[in-house]
Design a protein that fits this description.
The protein is an alpha+beta fold. The protein has one domain: 4-Layer Sandwich (Phosphatase 2c, domain 1). Helix content is about 30%, strand content about 30%. It has seven helices and 13 strands. It has a six-stranded mixed β-sheet with strand order 7-6-9-13-1-12, with helices on one face. A hairpin with a 6-residue loop joins strand 6 and strand 7. Helix 2 packs across helix 3. The longest helix has 21 residues. It is globular, with a radius of gyration of 17 Å.
Length: about 260
Amino acid sequence: MTSSWRWACARSIGTSHMKTDTRCEDFAGAKLFIRPEGPIIAAVVSDGAGSASHAEVGSKLVCLSFLRACREFLVSKPLEELVEEDVWHWLDEIREALNAKANAKALRPRDFASTMVAVLASPQTSIVIHIGDGAAVWKKAGSDGWEVPSWPYHGEYASTTAFVTDDPQAKLNYLRINEAIDEFALFSDGIERLVLEQATQSAHAPFFNRMLAPLKGSLVEGPDRGLSAALKDYLDSPSVCDRTDDDKSLILGVRT
């Protein structure tokens, strides 16, 4: 039987946003695509810029447009044929969607500024697509160690990063390995300091091992809605909110 994927996905409004009566500016989503060579998971997290007036619209549009681009590509091609040039074409389409939304509202594209971090994984290939902060971590098949294939990008000044809407083009990090991964996590910058070891630029393995354990023990195929609800409760909990007041998004995935 061909292996597939199980995942949990949640996002939580930051306490700083609750105090100012603003919306959660993160968005996250995942889809499973079935191809002859096996199932392919696509997962994406986007964090709307705090300085953008329509950040929550931008992050949602980035995620939905990215997953749509994945579907249009995978309907006729295997993931193994995806190259960086294709991803730049996807970004052009995402930026066009953001521009159209901005024009419709008589706004500027930067009013929808958002980051993007995504993972695509087939039985033979694993890819990270990353613009801005937040990060992806994964475990290669047969390995016990967590890796951070793309480190969060931070600018020269505090709380600055790169966005999909940056002009003339976004600062893209595209990484591809011709190997399978068995586990991954995607998250926005709201929990970076909780889950990454800044000094060594590595993942805090105990956190990810603990968070993935319930998912590995689940019998659900595809999205586990029960564990997604529990994940949201965790992100809303004082143990997390006492350490970060920002919006938080987290997607956890395991190969079944």
